[in-house]
Amino acid sequence: MCPAMASAEILGDKWTLLLLREMFLGTTRFGGFQKAIPRMSPSIMSKRLKTLEAAEIIIRKSAPTTQIADYKLTRSGRELGPIVENMAIWGMRWRKRSIAAQDCDVGGFMWDFHRTLNTEGLPDGDTVILVQISDRTDLNTWWVIANAVSVDLCPTDPGHEVDVYLTATLANLIALWLGDTDVRNAVETKSIFLDGPRHLINTAQDWMAQSPLVGVKPALSD
User: Fold this and answer.
1) Of 31, 48, 70, 209, which sits with the fewest C-beta atoms within 10 Å of its C-beta?
2) Can you spell out the DSSP letters for 1-55?
3) What is the per-residue DSSP string for 123-135?
4) Which domain holds residue 56?
5) Which residue, 98, 113, 135, sits at the end of a domain?
6) 69 part of a folded domain
7) Is pTM, for the whole model, over 0.85?
8) Which of 132, 201, 196, 120 is nearest to 167 (CA)?
9) Number of domains in the chain
10) Are residues 22 and 84 in the same domain?
11) What is the pLDDT of residues 121-163, one digit of tens each?
12) Is 222 part of any domain?
């Protein structure tokens, strides 16, 4: 059998690639995978993790005192890092136009959004950002609670006073995150709306979440 085909039998599945991507981003537990990939059913997730374990790409470790398991990459798994990264770069260069809001999972996107917030651009202490997705009727309100140590995402009101309100359609929020527009231009064209203290609004470009691949430019059409 061709080595490429042998690899594709294990890796040629979007759920498997998404799980590996999460592991490269630091997720190690089943619950974390569920938050990051909400469209993936628990049964499919369990099956894909077992397939990766059987292929010795990951190992499952359980602490003696708890039933909670951590999934860790093996040496074989770590070698897939550049492959997954290059697939993402290729997607930004050649398939960016096909990344449509109607095909985007809101929960998965907001998980990426909250963990790419630049906390260094925020003041000391907690900053609460209320993200309102104006063209969605469900999963349209998200609280992001950020400080220098951690960034938490809540789909329900955590009871904290809101510092900044960020309102946009999902398509415009994705465009901002992907770097198709910057904060100043998005505000001026009213594709996003920001409301809050002046110092947070004026420094929004410094703390706004952005894709780690924002510098990858789409390829020119032939």
Assistant:
1) 31
2) --HHHHHHHHH-SHHHHHHHHHHHTT--SHHHHHHH-TTS-HHHHHHHHHHHHHT
3) PSS-EEEEEEETT
4) 3-98
5) 98
6) yes
7) no
8) 132
9) 2
10) yes
11) 999 999 999 999 999 888 899 999 999 999 999 999 999 999 9
12) no
